């Protein structure tokens, strides 16, 4: 999937889902982004192959009991409401940190990071424990966090709250990449390295926009060693842009000369060629 098609899908997705679903989609740390598209449009879920941030990310997740933290947030807003005061999300985070510091909290309660507090407040808004109120002026619009319809059960501790937090682990990321590489042939691994090199060389181009996973599989299967053969597999646009680099890798792996090759073998391969049109050619 090219970056242009992915952007189109995102724009289409944003026009048809509710704000609540959109925020949950963005907040998720463990669900596949690409799978969410397929599920929303009633399509069969396909393998992501590391195309979304959640699938490629090297994170471990843990659940934090945030029931006590929620009680503090709700009590702060209740007190402010009684004093006819309001707070934005960032102001509420600062007030929570001050309250937490001077409250002598139990050792069993986890000390949340700033981004985790922000995440918790957003989660409470989605769960209707809190809500947003907007104040419009001639120059700006301010969003304030206030008590929602379900604040009382949360204040009484009758509504358990779990916060999913991410633990970034370089080791887990290395294991993920290693497992993925072990499933590739030598040629596929070299082509994967090549598309990442081209991506870094051409800022703003995603690796899968250079060569998709399906195209790498085709190249591994048919091993083209000429520009003409390559164009049949990945299209003219990508061949013009990246063909010389790809052919160099193909020839180094197959041991073919510039114009050499077994004609009978090439003819046999051509019979099984599957044409893959680059999405870039459609624009």
From TrEMBL:
<dbReference type="InterPro" id="IPR044876">
    <property type="entry name" value="HRDC_dom_sf"/>
</dbReference>
<dbReference type="InterPro" id="IPR036388">
    <property type="entry name" value="WH-like_DNA-bd_sf"/>
</dbReference>
<dbReference type="InterPro" id="IPR032284">
    <property type="entry name" value="RecQ_Zn-bd"/>
</dbReference>
<protein>
    <recommendedName>
        <fullName>HRDC domain-containing protein</fullName>
    </recommendedName>
</protein>
<feature type="signal peptide">
    <location>
        <begin position="1"/>
        <end position="18"/>
    </location>
</feature>
<dbReference type="Pfam" id="PF16124">
    <property type="entry name" value="RecQ_Zn_bind"/>
</dbReference>
<dbReference type="Pfam" id="PF00570">
    <property type="entry name" value="HRDC"/>
</dbReference>
<feature type="domain" description="HRDC">
    <location>
        <begin position="181"/>
        <end position="260"/>
    </location>
</feature>
<dbReference type="Pfam" id="PF09382">
    <property type="entry name" value="RQC"/>
</dbReference>
<dbReference type="GO" id="GO:0006281">
    <property type="term" value="P:DNA repair"/>
</dbReference>
<dbReference type="GO" id="GO:0006260">
    <property type="term" value="P:DNA replication"/>
</dbReference>
<dbReference type="InterPro" id="IPR002121">
    <property type="entry name" value="HRDC_dom"/>
</dbReference>
<dbReference type="GO" id="GO:0043138">
    <property type="term" value="F:3'-5' DNA helicase activity"/>
</dbReference>
<dbReference type="GO" id="GO:0003676">
    <property type="term" value="F:nucleic acid binding"/>
</dbReference>
<feature type="region of interest" description="Disordered">
    <location>
        <begin position="251"/>
        <end position="283"/>
    </location>
</feature>
<keyword id="KW-0732">Signal</keyword>
<dbReference type="InterPro" id="IPR018982">
    <property type="entry name" value="RQC_domain"/>
</dbReference>
């Amino acid at each position: 999937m090219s970056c242009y098609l992915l952007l189109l899908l995102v724009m289409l997705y944003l026009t048809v889902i509710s704000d609540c679903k959109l925020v949950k989609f963005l907040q998720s740390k463990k669900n596949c982004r690409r799978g969410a598209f397929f599920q929303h449009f009633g399509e069969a879920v396909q393998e992501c192959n590391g195309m979304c941030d959640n699938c490629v990310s090297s994170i471990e997740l843990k659940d934090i009991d945030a029931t006590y933290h929620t009680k503090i947030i709700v009590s702060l807003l209740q007190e402010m409401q009684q004093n006819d005061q309001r707070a934005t999300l960032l102001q509420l985070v600062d007030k929570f940190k001050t309250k937490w510091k001077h409250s002598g909290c139990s050792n069993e309660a986890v000390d949340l990071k700033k981004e985790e507090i922000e995440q918790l407040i957003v989660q409470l808004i989605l769960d209707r424990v809190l809500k947003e109120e907007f104040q419009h002026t001639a120059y700006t619009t301010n969003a304030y966090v206030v008590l929602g319809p379900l604040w009382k059960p949360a204040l009484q501790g009758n509504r358990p709250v779990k916060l999913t937090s991410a633990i970034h682990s370089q080791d887990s990321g290395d294991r993920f990449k290693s497992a993925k590489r072990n499933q590739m042939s030598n040629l596929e691994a070299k082509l994967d390295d090549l598309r990442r090199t081209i991506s870094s060389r051409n800022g703003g181009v995603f690796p899968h926009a250079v060569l998709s996973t399906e195209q790498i599989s085709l190249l591994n299967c048919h091993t083209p060693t000429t520009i003409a053969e390559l164009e049949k597999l990945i299209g003219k646009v990508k061949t013009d842009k990246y063909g010389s680099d790809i052919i160099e890798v193909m020839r180094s792996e197959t041991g073919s000369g510039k114009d050499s090759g077994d004609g009978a073998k090439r003819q046999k391969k051509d019979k099984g060629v599957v044409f893959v049109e680059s999405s870039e050619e459609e624009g």
